[in-house]
């Protein structure tokens, strides 16, 4: 029963990667001092947990919430090709993240705005 949270098919791939790093959603919840139900409500990792999860897992923040970084670079005036090269993502991935950002803005959801991006160095090599 504890793995039902892990098995939701509509989960963000980055969130699923975080859950896999911890083993289960229950272990992620315990590590963060949250309930399994709180994790179940996440569509993606909330911005306030990026630094904590990155520190515990060694996952680069770019891999936990790439949409925030795409948004930040877009706001700096970079085009999709530049963002793609900078983040080592394909242009279709960058486009997908930009669509998520625009949908969030239209819905008035600002809790994950690019102001929440923790400062980090360049993105890691592909696959990290």
How would you state the average pLDDT, rounded? 82
Structural class: mainly alpha
Number of beta strands: 0
Q: What share of residues is helical? A: 40-55%
Total of helices:
8
Which series of helices and strands comes N to C? HHHHHHHH
Largest sheet: none
Shape: globular
Tell me the span between the first and last alpha carbons.
31 Å
Global Rg: 15 Å
- Low-confidence segments, given as residue ranges, are 1-6
Strand content: under 5%
Please give a quick description of this structure.
The chain is an all-alpha fold and 128 residues long.
Structure description:
By secondary structure, this protein is mainly α. It is built from eight helices and no strands. The chain has helices at 13-22, 25-32, 36-40, 50-57, 61-64, 66-75, 80-87, 91-106. Helix 6 (66-75) crosses helix 8 (91-106) and helix 7 (80-87) crosses helix 8. The termini are far apart. Residues 1-6 have low confidence and may be disordered.
């Amino acid at each position: 029963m504890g793995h039902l949270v892990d098995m939701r098919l509509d989960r963000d791939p980055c969130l699923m990667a975080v859950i896999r790093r911890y083993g289960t959603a229950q272990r992620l919840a315990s590590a963060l001092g949250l309930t399994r139900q709180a994790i179940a409500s996440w569509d993606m990792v909330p911005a306030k947990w990026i630094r904590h999860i990155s520190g515990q897992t060694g996952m680069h923040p770019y891999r936990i919430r790439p949409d925030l970084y795409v948004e930040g670079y877009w706001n700096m005036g970079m085009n999709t090709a530049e963002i793609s090269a900078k983040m080592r993502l394909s242009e279709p991935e960058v486009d997908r993240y930009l669509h998520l950002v625009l949908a969030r803005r239209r819905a008035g959801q600002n809790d994950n705005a690019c102001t929440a991006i923790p400062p980090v160095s360049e993105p890691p090599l592909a696959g990290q």
